[in-house]
Amino acid sequence: MDRIQLIARLRDLPAARRIITALDVPSMDQALSLAESLGASGGFVKVGLELFSAAGPEVVHRLKNLDRDIFLDLKYHDIPNTVASAAGVAASLGASLCTMHASNGRAAMTAAATALSEARVDSRTGRRPALLAVTILTSLSEQEMGEVSPSHDLLQDRIQRLARLAWDCGCDGLVCSAADLPGLRATLGPEPLIVTPGIRPAGTDAGDQHRVATPREAMDAGADFLVIGRSITRAPDPGAALQAIAAELT
Ligand code: C5P
Question: Is position 64 annotated as part of the catalytic site?
C-alpha cells in the first residue's frame, strides 16, 4: 500500500478515532480494563515500551479483539536489517502506526519503509502500519544534545533536517511536539502524517510536560493524530474524558 493512499485513509478516520489514548500501564490487565473503559469511540490506543515490555505481543492481540487500533510506539533504532524485520513484525501484529528514530539514518529508515510498503495489509483495518519518525526527543535539552553529539546547529535545525530526511527515505510521517508543528508543516507541507503528544485539554494541569497545547490548537497547527495519556487515563471516567475532547474537535 503506497503512503499517499495510506495517509489519506488514516486522515479519513473521524476525530474521535484520531485521539490516541496512551496506555502507559505496567500490566495486561490494567491495559485491557483501561481500553474497555474508553467505550466504543476510544478506537486508538498507544502501546509503548512499558506495556510492551510487560505484556508483549499478546496485549496487541487482546486490544485488537476489543476493536482498538494500535499505535505501537517502540521507537526502533538498530541496524537496517533488524529494524526492517521489526517493522515487518509490527505489520504482522496488525499495528496501525509504528515508530523509529530518524537518527537511525538513511539506510535503516529506507529499509523499514520498504519492508512496510511491501507488508500485507491487516484484514481488520485494511491498512499496513504507517512508519513515523521521531526526530529529537523533546526531553533532550540543548546541553544534553551537545554531550551526545556536539554541533553548532540549533536543535530546531536538527529537527528540521531529520524530518526532511525521514520523509525523503519513505517514512509516512513524524511524531512531533505542538511547538515544532508549524515549522515542520512549513518545511514539509501538508503530506506527512503528524502525530503530536504533549496535549492538555484547556484548563487541565500540565504535569511534567513543559510545552503543551490544547487538542484544538494542535489540530489547527496541522496535527493528524493526538497522543493523550493522563488527561484521559487518570480521569474518573476515561470514556467521558475522551468524548469531551473529541467534542472539542468537531
Ligand atoms: O500523560 P501524557 O498525556 O503526558 O502522555 C503522553 C504520552 O506521549 C506518553 O505515552 C509519552 O511517552 C508520549 N510522549 C510525550 N512527549 C513526547 C513524546 C512522547 O509525552 N515528546
Answer: no
